[in-house]
Amino acid sequence: MKIKAPSKSRPVDLVLSPVDNTLLANLCGPLDENLRQIETALDVAIARRGERFMVRGEQARRAVEALQHFYVLARQPLSVDDIQLGLIELTNAPVRRLGSGESLTDGPQLVTRKAELHGRTPRQIEYLKAIQAHDITFGIGPAGTGKTYLAVASAVDAFERETVERIILTRPAVEAGERLGFLPGDLAQKVDPYLRPLYDALYDLMGFDRVTKLYEKGVIEVAPLAFMRGRTLNHAFIILDEAQNTTPEQMKMFLTRIGIGAKAVVTGDVTQIDLPKGQKSGLKEARQILAEVRGIAFTEFLKEDVVRHPLVARIVEAYEQHANQTP
What we know:
single chain
């Protein structure tokens, strides 16, 4: 591969070699969709003619490195997901032997239906290690950083390794600007939409049929936080999602449900609190009270850990800047 590195005001030229039309097609994707993803993520412009690429923008060098990396991996078609997750790894993890095709991150390998699942950023790796090493772990940060998904993946991993007997997923049924009362059905049907993200993660990691069978047997339980009161949860992996919407009393109630052989993960985003005005968040209080308690781990995610569409990280950053400028 040849790279021409002119002055900053001029584009960076790249010639991929050896030339392989199949690799080029897989790299670019249908209608050059993969190239558009790289452009959006790195805020560059990419022009291509055959194996020759011209990249313009402040991050042109990083885009060229990404093109080289994905070209080596393009023996099979690359999906949009492959490009987006690969860019996150290249951005957040130290690059070792760029283009070798090996994983760019070190960390726990989880036993789930998705064999390639692992932490994509340093803080995600830290989060997974904390979950394995501690009985109670808090994951706090903006949307899209993998807090819930990695927690569910860790729960599935623990269940598959038979270190726990049950998986219990819960979240507070707090109205995000809407009212529960207008929804049809009984209480369980009203709160089901609030629990849907947890079901979706389980289906993705274990498969619909297996989750359904385990749910029917009571091995997997997905329920509103209010249903946890009065219980003692032994030999279970328990996840409290959207914890920023718990009250201090609810948070204390949840944390004191933890029984023998149990592991708990609490996730939330303190910038998206839907509690009534003036009501204190149980997650914010717990972060202050439990910060120095031995055996409890906290992982604070940042916008750099967002693993959704590249624009999500920019949206989070824009809102942070606006909040900092607002008196």
